[in-house]
Design goal:
alpha+beta; 2 domains; two-stranded parallel ribbon; 43% helix
Amino acid sequence: GGEFQRVMLARMLVSEAEVLVLDEPTAALDIGHALSFLALCRQLAASGATVVLAMHELELARRHADQAILLTGDGEGRAHVGAPAEVLTPATLEPVFAVRVRERDGRLRFDLPPASADEGSA
């Protein structure tokens, strides 16, 4: 769970690696620990380390990343790349995740699309 995740993150951080590649590092953490970890990642990046995070917490990614890569999942190997506010938008996220996305007050809101009439008659 979260305790194991924090121990593994601490071990990784003391290694003083120049490049960190992490897969869902905040997934098992409560929000306080996740925010602390992301602040630490920002400090590491500011000190010259390269930090690459794969994550599904899109709001956290949007607020804490310098750059974002969104894989389109279209089987063609395409991706959207750039500043998080330009990459993680309703127009790019809706086709990838098959959800309705709205932006309000600078935050993303996610909803399931309305069920089609065909789905109810099956």
